[in-house]
C-alpha cells in the first residue's frame, strides 16, 4: 500500500505542484448557441511565457495542435505571463466539428475533441462534446497496470469474508478506478491541484464524491448478497482504505523524485508535462433542463473543468440540453 500511495502522491501530484508554482497551459472553449440553431465556437489557449525573461519550457505548438483553415478567425496576443491564441468559427446551422488537440510529453496528440449541436425536439437544443484519449495508457495512478494488484487487494480486504474473492474484488476495483480518475482530473471540477494546496479539504471532497458511485458499483456487482447495513459498512471500509492511498502525504527521505517537465522518466512518457487545464463552457438560448456539468441558472450557461488525463479511463462526454420558450 505504501508503494501505491507514494506513486500516486509523488508522481501525479508532483507534476501538479510544479505547475502551480510555475504556471500551466490552459484553455477556455466556449460554444454559444443561438435560437435559430446557429452557433459560434471560441477557443482561447494560453501558454506561459517563462519567468523573468527566461524562455518557457513549452511552446504553443508543443502543447496544442490548433485547428486551421479559412473558417477560423485567429487572434494572437500576450500578457506578462502568457502567450494567448484566440480562435473563432461561426456556424450557420447545427452540426458537428472537430477542432482542439492536446499534445503530451512526446509532443504527440494525447487528447482529441468532437463537438456537436443539434435540435432534438421543437424548441430544444443539445450540446455534446466528446473528449477522446489517444495517448499511451497512464503509467501512474489508479488505472495503471502496475497498481492493479494493489487496488484489488485494497477492495478485497474491505469486503465481508464470504464475498472477499479475487473475482469480486477485481470487478469492483475495475469499476472504481475510472471514478477515482474522474474525481481527480474532472469533469465537472478536478481536485488534483487542490490536493496540493489544501489536501485535508480535498481529501474530504474526494471521498464525498466517491460515495454514490461506490454504492452503485457494489449494488451492481454484489446485488442482494449484501444487506443495506452491510453494504454501507463495506463502503466505509473501502473509503477508509482509499484515504491512505489518495490523499497527499509528503514523505521526507522517500527517495522518490518527482517527474519534472521535460524529464526522461519513462513512467511519464505520455502524460502531459504541462498539466493542461481545460475549461469548457456552453451558452444556450433557453433554460437548461439537463446536463452533466455545473449550471449557472442566471446566465443559462453550463461549464466543466478537467485535465486531459480524465479521458485516459475512457471517453469523456460533456452534455447539456436547453428548452426555449416560457
Structural account:
The strands form two sheets. A seven-stranded mixed β-sheet has the order 4-5-2-1-9-12-11, with no helix packed on it. It has a six-stranded antiparallel β-sheet with strand order 3-6-7-8-13-10. The protein folds into two domains: 2-9 and 139-246, no CATH class; 15-136 and 265-323, no CATH class. It has helices at residues 2-22, 60-63, 148-156, 166-185, 192-197, 199-222, 228-246; strands at residues 26-33, 39-48, 64-65, 73-78, 82-91, 95-103, 109-121, 124-133, 277-283, 287-291, 294-296, 301-306, 316-323. 32% of the residues lie in helices and 30% in strands. Strand 1 and strand 2 (39-48) form a beta hairpin. It is globular. It is α+β, with helices and mostly antiparallel strands and 326 residues long. It is built from seven helices and 13 strands.
List keywords for this structure.
alpha+beta; 13 strands
In short:
Helices cover about 30% and strands about 30% of the residues.
Structural class category: alpha+beta
What's the SSE pattern?
Answer: HEEHEEEEEEHHHHHEEEEE
How many discrete structural domains? 2
Tell me, rounded to a whole number, the average pLDDT.
Answer: 83
Strand proportion, as a percent range, falls in 25-35%
Which percent bin holds the helix content? 25-40%
Low-confidence spans: 1-22, 247-273
How does the major sheet shape up?
Answer: 7 strands, mixed
Based on Cα principal axes, name the global outline.
Answer: globular
Give me the side-by-side strand order of the main sheet: 4-5-2-1-9-12-11
Distance between the termini: 56 Å
Individual helix count: 7
Instruction: Please tell me how large the radius of gyration is.
Output: 21 Å
Strand count = 13
Amino acid at each position: 500500500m505504501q508503494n501505491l500511495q507514494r506513486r500516486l502522491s509523488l508522481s501525479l501530484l508532483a507534476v501538479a505542484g510544479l505547475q502551480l508554482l510555475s504556471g500551466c497551459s490552459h484553455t477556455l472553449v466556449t460554444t454559444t448557441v443561438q435560437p435559430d440553431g446557429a452557433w459560434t465556437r471560441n477557443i482561447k489557449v494560453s501558454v506561459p511565457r517563462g519567468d523573468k525573461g527566461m524562455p518557457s519550457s513549452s511552446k504553443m505548438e508543443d502543447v496544442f495542435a490548433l485547428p486551421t483553415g479559412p473558417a477560423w478567425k485567429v487572434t494572437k496576443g500576450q500578457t506578462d505571463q502568457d502567450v494567448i491564441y484566440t480562435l473563432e468559427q461561426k456556424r450557420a446551422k447545427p452540426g458537428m466539428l472537430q477542432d482542439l488537440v492536446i499534445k503530451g510529453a512526446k509532443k504527440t496528440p494525447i487528447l482529441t475533441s468532437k463537438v456537436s449541436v443539434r435540435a432534438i425536439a421543437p424548441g430544444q437544443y443539445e450540446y455534446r462534446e466528446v473528449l477522446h484519449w489517444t495517448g499511451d495508457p497512464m503509467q501512474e495512478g489508479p488505472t495503471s497496470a502496475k497498481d492493479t494488484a494493489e487496488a484489488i487487494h485494497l477492495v478485497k480486504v474491505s469486503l465481508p469474508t464470504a464475498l472477499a474473492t479475487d473475482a469480486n474484488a477485481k470487478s469492483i476495483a475495475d469499476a472504481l478506478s475510472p471514478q477515482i480518475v474522474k474525481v481527480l482530473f474532472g469533469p465537472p471540477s478536478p481536485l488534483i491541484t487542490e490536493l496540493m494546496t489544501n489536501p485535508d479539504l480535498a481529501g474530504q471532497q474526494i471521498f464525498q464524491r466517491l460515495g454514490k458511485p461506490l454504492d452503485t458499483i457494489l449494488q451492481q456487482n454484489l446485488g442482494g448478497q449484501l444487506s443495506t447495513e452491510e453494504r454501507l459498512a463495506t463502503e466505509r471500509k473501502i473509503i477508509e482504505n482509499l484515504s491512505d492511498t489518495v490523499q497527499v502525504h509528503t514523505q521526507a527521505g522517500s527517495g522518490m523524485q518527482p517527474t519534472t517537465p521535460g524529464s526522461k522518466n519513462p513512467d511519464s512518457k505520455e502524460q502531459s508535462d504541462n498539466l493542461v487545464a481545460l475549461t469548457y463552457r456552453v451558452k444556450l438560448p433557453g433554460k437548461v433542463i439537463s446536463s452533466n456539468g455545473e449550471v449557472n441558472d442566471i446566465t443559462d450557461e453550463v461549464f466543466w473543468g478537467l485535465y486531459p488525463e480524465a479521458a485516459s479511463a475512457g471517453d469523456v462526454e460533456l452534455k447539456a440540453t436547453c428548452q426555449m420558450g416560457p
